Amino acid sequence: MDNQALQKIRDTFASSQQVTLIVGKNPSVDHMAAALSLYLSLAAKGKKATVISPTEPIVELSSLVGIDKVKMNPEGSGGDLVVSFPYREGEIEKVSYTIEGESLNIVVKAGEAGLTFSEQDVVFKRGSDKIDLIVTIGVSQLSGVSDVLSQDIMKDVAIINIDNSSQNEGFGSMVLVSPKFSSLSEQVADLMLNLELEMDADIAQNLMLGLIAGTNNFQNASTSYLAFEIAGILLKRGATRAQATPSQSAPTQPAGQMFPRQNLQRPQNVPRPASQSQQAPQQREDRQDRRDAIRDALRAQSQVRNEQRPFTPRNDRPQPQQQQRPESVQPQIQSQQMQQSEPTRQQQSDQKPPSDWLTPKVYKGSSSV
Questions:
Q1: The CATH number of the domain covering residues in 3-76+130-236
Q2: N or C: which end of the chain has fewer CB within 10 A?
Q3: pLDDT for 167-197, tens place per residue?
Q4: Rounded to an integer, what distance in angstroms lies between the CA atom of residue 264 and that of residue 259?
């Protein structure tokens, strides 16, 4: 949006006191969230804003702030009062009025056939206030506006057309139609930020819910980079990421998982083991006392065994006799093993050893041991 168009929209909002916002038939969460957010922001500035929906809002929209302010007709508080009753040819001769004190009496003079309708057939309707500005949100055709407002009301009234559908007819005095936006909530949020309109926590939450619904929880391939930027701004303004409902996004199965994971639940009657920090202090003291008693008993037994064991001097203890191998035999055996090849050792291993092989060889020398 260029600066000239933005300035024109800013001046139009500033000079308009009675603003009517219109959504299409069966509005989605995204469309209604965008309309209510703009309505709340204008109402905070003292504007007389009205949100009109051709169809009654569904239960899915009940979480949006301001949904109770949505109307299905342009009735206002300052418009004309219309009195309606059945009319048949020849029943009414003329209609006049009289003033008695502070009361205005509307007189319907009966004709020759007389009046056949009763008091219960008389209907009082409040006409719409004078509208200064019309803002359509998600309305692709001008017929969607004419179904709600009469041609007399729409005459000489500026219309701002906000939509992200490529099927939009492009009607209105100021056309803000751009398919680059992945949701109307991010489009309205971007407009509000450029116009420096108020955006409190309730408005930010509405826009966040609409943004999540319009982008299927940011999973649609058409989700724009602006959607993530707007989401970050909304989080700073007080919005929270709401969990997507089953209708908004389907659960995805993790990669590599052949079968769905079972939801295993612990039986209700089986108590959970208490952690060490959750156990009573008295139980911890009892366990410590038992460990101390066991340690003292082991120390006492060890002391008794040491006292009963006879003391034997180290020099008087019998020394085990070690068998000595002749020094001349050991080098001879090692040299023979080194000279033998692998096939020779394999052949010798197959032969049966001599009978005195395991007999200890005692070396008898000249010196005494």
A1: 3.90.1640.10
A2: C
A3: 999 999 999 999 999 999 999 999 999 999 9
A4: 14
Q: Is the dihedral of CA 252, 257, 262, 265 positive or negative?
A: negative
Widest CA span of the chain, in angstroms? Answer: 168
CA distances from residue 250 to 10, 30, 196, 207 in whole angstroms, order as listed = 40, 18, 36, 22
Tokens standing for residue 311: 């003391």
DSSP β-bridge partners for residue 158: 133
Task: Decide: pTM greater than 0.70.
Answer: no
Please write the tens of the pLDDT for every residue from 286-312. Answer: 777 777 777 777 777 777 666 666 555
Among all chains, which residue has been given the structure tokens 């006191």? Answer: 17
3 state SS for the chain: CCHHHHHHHHHHHHHCCEEEEEECCCCCHHHHHHHHHHHHHHHHCCCEEEEECCCCCCHHHCCCCCHHHEECCCCCCCCCEEEECCCCCCCEEEEEEEEECCEEEEEEEECCCCCCCCHHHCEEEECCCCCCEEEEECCCCCHHHHCCCCHHHHCCCEEEEEECCCCCCCCCCEEEECCCCCCHHHHHHHHHHHHCCCCCHHHHHHHHHHHHHHCCCCCCCCCCHHHHHHHHHHHHCCCCCCCCCCCCCCCCCCCCCCCCCCCCCCCCCCCCCCCCCCCCHHHHHHHHHHHHHHHHHHHHHHHHHHHHCCCCCCCCCCCCCCCCCCCCHHHHHHHHHHHCCHHHHHHHHHCCCCCCCCCCCCCCCCCCC
| Residues 50 and 171 sit within 8 Å (Cβ to Cβ) | no
Distance CA 181, CA 190 (A): 10
Instruction: Indicate where the chain has its CATH 3.90.1640.10 domain(s).
Output: 3-76+130-236
